[in-house]
Amino acid sequence: MVKVVTFFLIGMAILAIFGRLRFPRIGTGRGAARCPSCGRPLIGRGPCDCGGKA
User: Fold this and answer.
1) Do residues 50 and 40 lie in contact, with contact meaning Cβ atoms separated by under 8 Å?
2) Domain residue limits at 12
């Protein structure tokens, strides 16, 4: 049982390493839209909670 878990964890680590080599910037894509005042990421089309007063 310990061998199976160990091999599984080693396999997952190897897949993670190859995934990072193949897609190093996944998640940052086109660059998240940020509020020019406070720098928070903007979600949706509405204004930032800071109201541009930061």
Assistant:
1) yes
2) 1-45
How far is the first Cα of the chain from the last one, in angstroms, to the nearest whole number? 55
Q: Would you state the torsion angle of the CA atoms of residues 19, 20, 23, 24, taken in this order, to the nearest 10 degrees?
A: 180
31 located within any domain: yes
pLDDT at 43: 83
The reply to whether 53 falls in a domain is: no
Tokens read off for 26:
């996944």
Q: Which residues of the chain are modeled with pLDDT < 50?
A: none
Residue 9 confidence (pLDDT): 97
Which residue in this structure is represented by tokens 């680590």? 13
Predicted TM-score (pTM) of this structure:
0.42
